[in-house]
Amino acid sequence: MKFGHFDDKAKEYVITTPHTPQPWINYLGSNDFFSLISNTCGGYSFYKDAKLLRITRYRYNNIPVDSNGKYYYINDDGVIWNPGTMPSGTETDTYECRHGLGYSRFHSSKNNLEADLLAFVPVDAACEINCLTLKNNSDVAKNVSLFSYVEFCLWNAVDDSTNFQRNLSIGEVEVHGSTIYHKTEYRERRRHYSFFTVNAPVQNFDTSRDEFLGAGNGNAFPEAVRRKKCSNSIASGWYPIAAHQIDLTLAPGEEKTFVFMLGYCENPADNKWEAPNVIRKAPAKALIERFDTAEKAMAAFAELKTYWETLLARFAVTSSNEHVDRMANIWNQYQCMVTFNMSRSASYYESGTGRGMGFRDSCQDLLGFVHLIPERARERIIDIASTQFPDGSAYHQYQPLTKQGNLDVGSGFNDDPLWLIAAVSAYLKETGDYGILDEPVPFDCKKGSEVPLFEHLNKSFHYTATHLGPHKLPLIGRADWNDCLNLNCFSSEPGESFQTTGPSEGPVAESVFIAAMFVQYGKEFKEICLRTGHEDLAKEAESAVADMYQAVLDAGWDGEWFLRAYDSQSAKVGSKECEEGKIYIEPQGFCVMAEIGKEEGLAEKALDSVHKHLETKYGIMILQPAYTRYHLELGEISSYPPGYKENAGIFCHNNPWISIAEAVLGRGDLAFDVYRKICPSYIEEISDVHRTEPYIYSQMVAGADAARFGEAKNSWLTGTAAWTFVNLSQALLGIQPEYDGLAVNPCLPKNFGGLKIKRRYRDAEYYIDIRKPDGVEKGVAWMEVDGKKIAGNQIPLIPGKKEYHVTVQMG
Ligand code: BGC
Ligand code: IFM
After folding, report:
1. Per-residue pLDDT tens over the stretch 35-79
2. Distance (Å) from CA 257 to ligand 2 centroid
3. Which of 144, 195, 225, 512 is buried deepest, with most CB atoms within 10 A?
4. 32 classed as catalytic
5. Distance CA 165, CA 318 (A)
6. CATH 1.50.10.10 region(s) of the chain?
7. 467-683 belongs to CATH 3.30.70.260
8. DSSP class of 434
9. Taking every annotated instance into account, which residue ranges of this chain make up the domain Glycosyl hydrolase 94 catalytic (predicted)?
């Protein structure tokens, strides 16, 4: 069952009922100012950092689940309704929500009054614009009262939801004409403020929540809206809000448009001498003037559309498969941008107050984003590397506003360092910008500790190389990619196994997964060394990688598949000898991606075992059999009920690893089948089972052991987006950025048909025509560039050349 449909021409998903199984959301904003917006207008806004600079308030765990947002109430002859239906919940006669690229559009009507609400964040302004048009479709004049409503958050979202004894006394506002300023200061007196304005005179306003809603009321039918009158309240403490009242008369057929704006401003840094609560309104005035007519707002909207058209044109495929084209050209790239911006901070499942930017998460997000805006990827790499410690280990997370490592979470996840090499090598392959390796980058953000970025990679590599266990496999530390595999918790005090801080390394627990990463990214490190004149290091890397490869063959192979790990007592994890959790997905995917066991015939066996033991109709589970009891020696993984999350859920993130691994072996049908099973567009039809947004990936789908098999959770912020884009664009469609140019090497189902790809790469346009005879899954028979046959399948880079026309014959 579906709750809407794709509109590929408009690059939108059209939701046709407000009653979706979960709130189906979208993200507005691409740089600093962001909003989350659901298909019933729920959500919130923040500037740069969802924890520290939260602009509007949202209540997670609320009832109804999604009942705070930027709302517009219409009182039309006593009937109160909202364009997105919430929070009144009044059923409208028509309803449509279109989530597009950086904007959402609501179209609804009630009693012949039509509302069109367009919400977006302009490309380069710290504000959200809401254009609301009301149209009278009846044949009599209508007197309508329109109310806006946002509830301010007192900036620090954690404090805002906990420190009431203080917060209920600090709220301050100021009102000038139609602009309501929220100027509550946070403790550090950061001198920022926000405002909510509309480009029309208002009859009245409210800034006190109690005055607007009526003390003790919810926000479904505010008292002011019922009585058609705000009371011009000025909040002092308690709960500051911004509500405008606009009374209007619409003749039959007449329509009126209002431009609302929620903005964020900073006082200039030179006003330290001013009283703390004085805000300078000039920055707000300038911002307001940029968008204070419908024409100006629509010009900004057109600019946003062009921005996205230009970005997406960097990778565009035309094939005979609508799912592939839709996901590759629109939604997968879009989600890559969102995950790049948000890491794992703010979604409807991540409160914005917990995880900031993850070291491993952001490094992986970058893999799917680097082709879109390489300059921002560059900046991100420097930010991430700046949180590394001098020994190569790293803070697991950092705060986006301060860019400082998060002390509460600390370090000790031993996969983290190697992800930095993954990110930098992807950046170098995309851009050829070796200059980044010379950038001075500090350790732990400490001034004076700067060394060239290259040294950080060197530290990453050596951190793993020098932290090996008894089987010569890398020590796992607190966990590797699988956060819940806490193999050293056995050695901590009883009852402490859930702790998130603690000894950064246990005695001996080892990870086959990190070993595979080391082989994969160690090879990249060697390449980087060779290209930067570090021959000795390159040799050292080559030999350490060879040793690791051997260690995996010697101690990481279980007979039919790769082992997952050794626990702190050196017992096997993910082995046929285990009582539960006999096989895990991660080492199968990563070992084969790293080509471990390919020559020895093990790789094929490992992937066959994946299909045999882990595959379901909804995707591949992370492990089997699920843990049915708590295993002290394994930690959090066994704390989940069977079939959920890391305990045998279908963890979407590592499904593309299997698909890429299949492509390494040239098995196109199998590679594509893995892709297809979790692909949003392919599974749109089962939206009632899947329940999260059908246009983007979720972190997890409940596995076969779960009561709710097939149901997804944690949509949007998942490494699945980036890894799937790598899988689709590089492994399946075969467009592979390499250090010295673009290579083409598709791996597709036997009957996929030919395809055309346009790719922007290193300041040139590539037009690639791939001819694929039926029956062929992988292999390039010949390749022509601008009509001339070339040797191999890598397009030679010609300095200054702006266009490459490439024909590839598979076979
Ligand atoms: C997992 C969560 C887990 C957390 C612990 C996450 O990556 O997905 O389920 O509770 O790590 O740190
Ligand atoms: O690898 C982690 C990631 O960092 C956060 N989400 C869950 C993944 C698996 O545990």
Report:
1. 999 999 999 999 999 999 999 999 999 999 999 999 999 999 999
2. 45
3. 512
4. no
5. 59
6. 467-683
7. no
8. G
9. 307-734
